[in-house]
Amino acid sequence: RTGCRDSMPSTSESDDFRRRSGPGRPHSTGVIEATGLRKNNGSRGGVRMCVAVCLAVVSFLLGIGATLGMLWWYYAPLLEETQENLKVLVDAKLSAADSANGYLMLRNAELIKHVQELSAHDDNGMFREHWSWSEDSLYKDSSHVRRVGHGSDPDQTAVNDLVPGTPEDKSEPGRDAAQLSEQAEMLKANLKKSALANAALQAQLEEAEQAVSKLKHDLAASKVQPPSPASPCMHSSVADVLRLTLQGNQVVQNPQSQKWAYVTMAHDTPGKETYLIRALALARSLNRLSRYPLVLLANATRWSDGTSVATSFEALGVRILPLHPIASGDTSSTHLWAVSDWRLQAWTLTEFEKLVWIDTDAVVYRSLDWLFARPGMWAMRDDTSCADHGSEFSLGLLVLYPNTTDYKSLLELAGKFDTADSGHKSQSLLSTYFIDVHGKPLNLLSSVEASHGRCLGQASSPYINPDGSTVQGYWSTPAFVHRSGGWDSVGYDNVCFSPELSKQKYYVGVSILNACQFNPLAAYWRTSLCEAVMIAGIRDPTSVGDFCSDSCYYLGEGAACGGRLNATLAYPEYYAKTKGMPEPEVSGRPGQP
Prior knowledge:
This protein is an alpha/beta fold and 593 residues long. The termini are far apart. Strands 3-2-1-4-7-6-8 form a seven-stranded mixed sheet, sandwiched between helices. Strands 5-10-9 form a three-stranded mixed sheet. It has 20 helices and 13 strands. Helices cover 48% and strands 10% of the residues.
C-alpha cells in the first residue's frame, strides 16, 4: 500500500494535470497532444537536414565549377599553342610536298628537253628503238602531285584540299580537340597519298633516266672502243663505274660541240712520259667540267707498258692526232724552243671553227666552256708578279681560230723573227702577227679566270658581303691555273702538277714534308691523274703507281717512297721560319724525328 501510494500522484499533482487537460477532457487527450508536439519538432529537423544537403550540393557544384575554371585558365593557352604547332606542322608538310612536286616537275622538264635533244641527233634509229616514253606519260600520274602544291591559287588551294574548312576557318582558342585531331589525321592521310603519288612519279622518272642512260651507253659504244684492263693500283669495279660515267658524258648535247674543242700537245723523248701523264690529268679535268672534246697532238704511240696511247686516251674521250715537227727557219733554236713552236700546228685543224689551247702543266678547276661563247681572241695574262695589270699574254691558255692562211703566215714570220728573247718567242710572234699585222687585239682574262699557281690567293674574290666587303676566307681560286709554282729555283716552278715525288719532298731541320700537301690544288690534280690512269687502263705508267698510293703520298710508307713523312713542322722550326731544301738539293739526309 505504501508503494502504491508513493507511486500515485499527489492531489495537487492530479489537480494540476486536470487543469492542463482541461475540464471535461479525458486524461488521454493531454497525452495525445504531447505526442503531436514531439512530431512537429521532428518535421523541423528534416527541413533543416534538406537545407544542409542542398547547400552541400551547391558548394560541391561551385567547387567543381571553380576547378574547371582553373583548369580552363591553365590549359587554354596550351591548347592554343597546340593548335599553332599543328598549323606549323601543316605548313611544313605542305612546303615539303611543294618542294618534292617542284623538283619532280623540274626533272620532268629537264628529261623532256634532254629527250628532244637526243631525238635531234637520232641518225641511226637507236633512240626510237630504246625510248618508249612520251611527254604525256611522264605526267600521267602527276595530277595529284600538282594538287598537293599550291597550283593556280598559291595561297590556299593546297590547304583547302588537304584540311577541311575554308581559308577563313582560323584556329581559335577553345576549338574542340577532337576536331583538331580528326583534321590532323585527314592531313596525314592526304600527305601519305601525296607521297605515294610523288614516289610513283619518281619511279617513272628513274625508269626513264635508265632508258636514257642505256641510250647514252649505246651511242658511246658505237664511237668508243672497249678500254684496256684497269690499272692494278685501282679497283677494277671503280674503273668500270668511271668509264660508264665518261661514256655518258660523251653524248653530243650541243651542235657546236662538233665545231669547238680544246687542244693541247704532248711531246716526249723516248723513254719519257712526262707530258703524256700531264695530258691524262688535263683530260680527266675536262671530262668533269666540259661538254666539248679534247684533241691531243702527240708524238708517242705506246706507253711504257705497251698500251696504245690512242686507245687509252679514247677511253677518256680524247682524240689523238700526230704531232709533226715544224721548221721555223731558226737554226739557233734549242730543242725545247723548236718543240714549243710546234703548237702552231693547231692552226691547221680547220675542221674546227674555234679551239681553246691549254698547256698540259696546268689545272682546269672550273668550266672554261664560256670561252667558246666569247667573240674574239682571248689569252691568260702573263703576269708572274701577280699584280693583275700586265699587258703581256701567255700561251698557257689561248682562244684561236684555225686558218691555213694564218698558219703559213705565222711560219713565214717565225723565220724572220728576232730570237733574242727565246723564252717568250711564241708570245711575241703571235702578238706581232695578230696585233701589229692584222690589228686583231688579244683580250686578256682576269686573274680569277686564269692565273699562275704562284699567284693563288691574289685575285679579287667575286664573293662579296652585303656591306661590300670581301667574304673572309679563300674564295678566289681561278678557273685555270698555269703551273703550281714551287721552291724558288730553276726546275721547281711546277712541283705539284707532276707525279715526281722527289721534288715535292722538303727537308726542314729534322722534319720531312710533302710540300704539295700544303697546296690547295695539289690533291685535285693528283685525283684527276690517278682516276685518268685507272680509266685509261694503263698498267704501269712511269712513277705514277707510287704517286697514286695514299700511304706513299701522305705518309711516305713503301720501299720506293723514301721514308716516313711528317704532317707538320716542329714548333721551333716553324716559328723560327727555318729554311729547307727539296730532296734533290739535299746532299745528305738528316735523321728523321
